[in-house]
Amino acid sequence: xxxxxxxxxxxxxxxxxxxxxxxxxxxxxxxxxxxxxxxxxxxxxxxxxxxxxxxxxxxxxxxxxxxxxxxxxxxxxxxxxxxxxxxxxxxxxxxxxxxxxxxxxxxxxxxxxxxxxxxxxxxxxxxxxxxxxxxxxxxxxxxxxxxxxxx
Length: 151
Hints:
By secondary structure, the protein is mostly helical. It has one domain (12-150). It contains 6 helices and no strands. α1 (12-38) packs antiparallel against α3 and α3 (53-79) packs parallel to α5. The two termini are 29 Å apart.
């Protein structure tokens, strides 16, 4: 089992951004998964705007922007592991391809968009896990700088 290292107070903003990014990725995945079921139900209860394409693009944009803002610093300052960045890149490509290349509402669009959103969520979770197991409590992260000079 992984032990969670205590975090310094300097990382509070990063933790909030990670949490919001994770929620945006998760909301995007849930939206993709539930859209076929809720297409007829949401308008009946006055929530038809959740099916609006602008809401979809808002979720996609938030997930992508927050992913970049949290994954790159996590990689550079804490863990230097490329796997969360690779998951994020794959998810972003798949999600954007589903939204931009495939006609809206086709059979392949929703599963691909869902897969992309799941990969974005996995990237956020992986980055948070790697960042939290970073053994340091300092802001400079000299151990990564020393390690990178050795290589």
